[in-house]
Amino acid sequence: MVYDCWHRSKPNDDFEALRKQGSSPSNQAAKRDARAEVLSEEEKLATNFIKSLFGILYEVYSSSAGPAVRHKCLQALLRQIYFASPELLNDILVNQPVSR
To answer: Contact 44/82 with Cβ under 8 angstroms?
Structure first.
């Protein structure tokens, strides 16, 4: 491994410090995802967001050949499904070819 002279510590030391810092339960509770909080508080915003992006993400997912793009689209689709209500999913999936 080539050690860059611009770094003051070894890369493994940096990763070890980050691992120790992020492993405590108090840090996990303090780090809540602000995006998830907004989506849970603003249901109308979340509904409009999911309705507008679900079809686009599914189209990109089904037409892409690259595994990285497909993986990112699938992750975003799964996040949307997780936060959506059953009624919203029913409304969205009626217009998608995946639901037929």
So the answer is: no
Question: What are the tokens at 55?
Answer: 């079809």
Per-residue pLDDT for 10 more than 50?
no
Burial 14-33 (b: 16+ CB within 10 A, else e): eeeeeeeeeeeeeeeeeeee
Q: How far apart are CA 73 and CA 67, in angstroms?
A: 10
CA separation for the pair 61, 32 (Å, rounded)? 28
Domain extent, residue 68, equals 33-99
In this model, does residue 52 exceed pLDDT 70?
Answer: yes
- Among residues 37, 51, 42, 41, the alpha carbon closest in space to that of 81 is found at 51
Q: Which residue has the higher pLDDT, 55 or 25?
A: 55
**62-92 tens-digit pLDDT:** 998 899 999 999 999 999 998 889 999 999 9
**88, part of any domain:** yes
User: For the chain, what is the domain count?
Assistant: 1
